[in-house]
């Protein structure tokens, strides 16, 4: 099951080519839109991702699929790790592509701690004043600007946010594949290693770097598909 990242959708980037390659090898693939797909104001709570992904899992199970691999792209990695940490027995493995890591830390990396904290503090003030679902303009650096509700922002990078991939991956016991492009300029270069370190208690974690791959693995779709599908076949019994 393919889960997109921020402002993405089910047919973006390498998803169609990966799905076609999987189908050719007898692997059923579902790509779904999360409730905050594409551009536009972001209003949901991160915990809503559990419902969205669980709905996709239930649909695959209704088709007779019993072993499900979750693949997340970018922020989609945070989404699928939240699901994988729930110990759903139908989830057999998880693939993380271009994960940004902890989302508050990503903002610190982009803007410095003072500015990153300022947006969180503003969201907390708005929540305290009863304006949790009003809109605030958020600077996302290389991703432009977007409208968030305090509810959305705090669930993604506020105190106690459940989106932290390092906490969630530490709870995952099934196999995990982490892929990161060395030409990816949107995330810090050591995120894959941080994720591996956070999953130190799981011996079934693999990290793969692709030398020329950017954040969306553009022009690297065949290599990505080959790495992902060969790994799935090696860790998920047919």
Structural notes for this entry:
The protein is an alpha/beta fold. The chain folds into 2 domains: 2-102 and 163-235, Rossmann fold; 103-161, no CATH class. The chain has 9 helices and 8 strands. Strand 5 and strand 6 form a beta hairpin. The model has no long low-confidence stretch (mean pLDDT 96).
Q: What integer value in Å does the Rg equal?
A: 17 Å
CATH architecture heading of the largest domain = 3-Layer(aba) Sandwich
Instruction: Give the number of helices.
Output: 9
For the secondary structure, the number of strands is 8
Name its key features.
9 helices; six-stranded parallel sheet; Rossmann fold; 238 residues; two-stranded antiparallel sheet; globular; alpha/beta
